[in-house]
Amino acid sequence: MTTPRGPAQAARRRRRPTRYRTCPAMDKPSARPSCPHFSSGPCAKRPGWRAAALDTALVGRSHRSAAGKDRLAEVIARSRALLGVPAAYRLGIVPASDTGAVEMALWSLLGARPVDILAWESFGKDWVTDVTQQLRLPNVRVLDADDGALPDLGQVDFDRDVVFLWNGTTSGVRVPDGDWIADDRRGLTICDATSAAFAMPLPWPKLDVVTYSWQKVLGGEAQHGVLVLSPRAVERLESHTPSWPMPKLFRLAKRGKLSEGVFAGETINTPSMLCVEDALDGLRWAESVGGLPGLIARSEANLATVADWVAGTPWIDFLARGPATRSSTSICLCFGTEVTDRLSVDEQRTVVKRMTGLLDAEGIAYDIAAYRSAPPGLRLWGGATVNAADTAALMPWLTWAYEMATDR
Q: Residue 161: helix, strand or coil by DSSP?
């Protein structure tokens, strides 16, 4: 006897998980990326990098020696020149990557004014948690947005301190420019620029605090951050004493005066001289490819390559809703309606897992699944250390992996 099937059972049958191929059904693309490193952090090393680039590192030497200080000062000087940081701004090397640099700024500078925080992706939401639940500031406005969008920038109040990311590493959404930032602001602008610095132009007069790490666009090793302070930020440090205890790693002022040594290579804690040497190698390479304009052009070429492929591929789309807000570094892709109309979110995640597994096994692309809290999709690093020719070679492989994973 046949058991009657109700509507719920019929729906389950219709949403049966996608079947996957057990044997090749289409030819693999002939061209392969010369470098399969498309991870959004840590990111690809500069083209041609070899461990021999670190042979001159001052390992076994004190970072407080004259030679050690010289290396740290050289990183600061080369970074300042490449980024076009104004002479009046301080630039220092700080602990704990970009996260440490942002935390130092939040803990040291906030509390004097109300705060606006812009949050449209995972790390921006982390800063919301820090300000509201750890520092517990009383007058905080959170301006947020759905995946793929920006908050309404016109709602930002620049009489307040403003905390925001220039580029959303987990969403692929960036602010289009700095025109929305008031020149006559009374509050400070605190900008997490970790996946924007060296790949996107930053309007320094609009920014009072900028943070980034070596591990993104420079392809450097992790655990070291960079903190840039405007004269207005220094004035705040010297005039405002936070009401909370300040951990040693966050202390940027002493007896009401900026700790100038931090911005001259006298780091708060012991840096890795291997990482310092690697940062110098990345900075020298950046200079050799045309400095900041060259780096920006290399990153934009990667975005243009992906955009051309997306335009001709109906099952994929950019997570960022508008071209002006598409990141050229953390290029986030989501499935198009051709997929989302017929597959559940869990089934989409399964497709991504299959695709990335296939590409990993072929040695074509590593670590390109979307960030865990983002919609199902792919995230391709398009920073300056990635050659556009490799990005172009990857595109047919993405099509191959999708067709293999969905049995099309």
A: strand
pLDDT digits (tens, 9 = 90+) for 299-337: 999 999 999 999 999 999 999 999 999 999 999 999 999
36-46+291-406 carries CATH number 3.40.50.720? no
CA angle 265/267/271 to nearest 5° reads 105
- Identify the bridge partners of residue 115 per DSSP, sorted by sequence position: 140, 161
Say what the pLDDT of residue 24 is. Answer: 52
The secondary element (H helix, E strand) that includes residue 240 is none
Q: Over pLDDT 90: what percentage of the chain? A: 93
Tokens of 102: 């942002």
Residue 25's pLDDT band, with cuts at 50, 70 and 90, is low
Instruction: Looking at 267-327, list the stretches that DSSP marks H as alpha helix, in order from N- to C-terminal side.
Output: 273-288, 291-311
Please state, in angstroms and rounded to a whole number, the distance separating the CA atoms of residues 150 and 276.
35
Regarding the domain delimited by 51-287, which CATH topology (the fold level of the hierarchy) does it fall under? Aspartate Aminotransferase; domain 2 (3.40.640)
| Shared fold status for 36-46+291-406 and 51-287 | no
Asked if residues 353 and 378 have their Cβ atoms less than 8 Å apart, the reply is no
Token pair recorded at residue 397? 């492989």
Beta bridge partners of 209: 190, 229
The structure's pTM equals 0.93
Find out whether 169 and 40 touch, Cβ atoms under 8 Å.
yes
